[in-house]
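Retro notes (design track)

What went well: tokenization of the new backbones is finally stable.
What didn't: we kept losing track of which sequence belonged to which structure.
Fix going forward: every design gets posted as structure first, then sequence, in one message. First example under the new rule, 302 residues:
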């Protein structure tokens, strides 16, 4: 029996927990799938599955073997993908994880064009605030807006980022435009609710130093989109990332204040597991986003 085929069969049976499902997908009989597994177990000298008439589950040895086989086949596919990318488009499914707000505004709108450029690919975009486990979950790459100095994966910078203080024209007309950081004490500041005690702490850069200022207001929320909506409605000043509010500033729906004190925020990265071969589909998407986000960031251009 072809060893590669045996490993592929093992992987599919392990994922689906059903020999009949794998057989149906291949157009063969369940007995043939069973014979492949039997021969593989005989060669290895261990049982990979516990089989009953009702279900099939992996043994501890099977579970350990599964992780090794998955990495081997992933590397094999990536190696083939890498060597052939110059001759043809990448094929298969690309699974991307991104923060919800950023993904909606700056990833999802570009995926249709990416698929026009790469018609043999399909894309699954997962929007979540959860940090996916890149090693154990079936995610090809994740977008992260964070400090990644101690990260245990490969990170490619896509764009810079900084924070801005914004308010609506009606609020600025009513409450005045602050010219100094200390003047924030006289303003209603729309604060991100936090359980770790960091609520109402805004950071600024002044004379090359980062200053942390305690602000306050009568409205808090743990959802940045809500804070932006409150600011648009004229309820106060908000401290948001430039990528979140650049459109509203360009349309004069929001006014940026204290520009000269803007502090850098966490930069925007594409991250993926450290592996021998970088799949072409991952490289293509990273390069595609880098072109879209080419400095100065497109969300900050006039």
């Amino acid at each position: 029996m072809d060893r590669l085929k045996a490993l592929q069969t093992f992987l599919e049976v392990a994922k689906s927990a059903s020999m009949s499902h794998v057989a149906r997908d291949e157009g063969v009989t369940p007995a043939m799938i069973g014979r492949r597994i039997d021969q593989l177990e005989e060669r290895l000298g261990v049982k990979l599955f516990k089989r009953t008439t009702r279900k099939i589950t992996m043994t501890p040895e099977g579970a350990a073997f599964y992780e090794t086989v998955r990495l081997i086949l992933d590397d094999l596919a990536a190696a083939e993908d890498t060597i052939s990318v110059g001759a043809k488009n990448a094929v298969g499914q690309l699974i991307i994880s991104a923060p919800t707000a950023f993904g909606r505004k700056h990833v999802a709108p570009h995926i249709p064009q990416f698929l026009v450029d790469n018609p043999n690919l399909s894309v699954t975009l997962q929007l979540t605030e959860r940090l996916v486990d890149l090693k154990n979950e079936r995610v090809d790459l994740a977008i992260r807006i964070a400090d990644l100095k101690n990260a245990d994966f490969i990170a490619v910078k896509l764009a810079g980022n900084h924070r801005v203080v914004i308010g609506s024209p009606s609020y600025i007309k009513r409450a005045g435009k602050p010219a100094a950081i200390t003047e924030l004490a006289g303003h209603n500041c729309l604060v991100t609710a936090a359980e770790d005690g960091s609520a109402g702490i805004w950071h600024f850069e002044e004379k090359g130093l980062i200053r942390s200022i305690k602000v306050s207001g009568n409205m808090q929320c743990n959802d940045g989109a809500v804070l932006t909506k409150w600011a648009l409605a004229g309820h106060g000043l908000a401290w948001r990332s430039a990528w979140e509010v650049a459109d509203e500033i360009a349309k004069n729906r929001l006014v940026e204040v204290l520009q000269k004190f803007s502090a850098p925020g966490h930069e925007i990265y594409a991250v993926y597991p450290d592996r021998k071969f970088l799949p072409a589909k991952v490289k293509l998407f990273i390069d595609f986003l880098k072109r879209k986000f080419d400095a100065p960031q497109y969300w900050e251009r006039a």
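Added context from the reviewer: The chain has three domains: 3-83, 89-157+266-300, 163-261.
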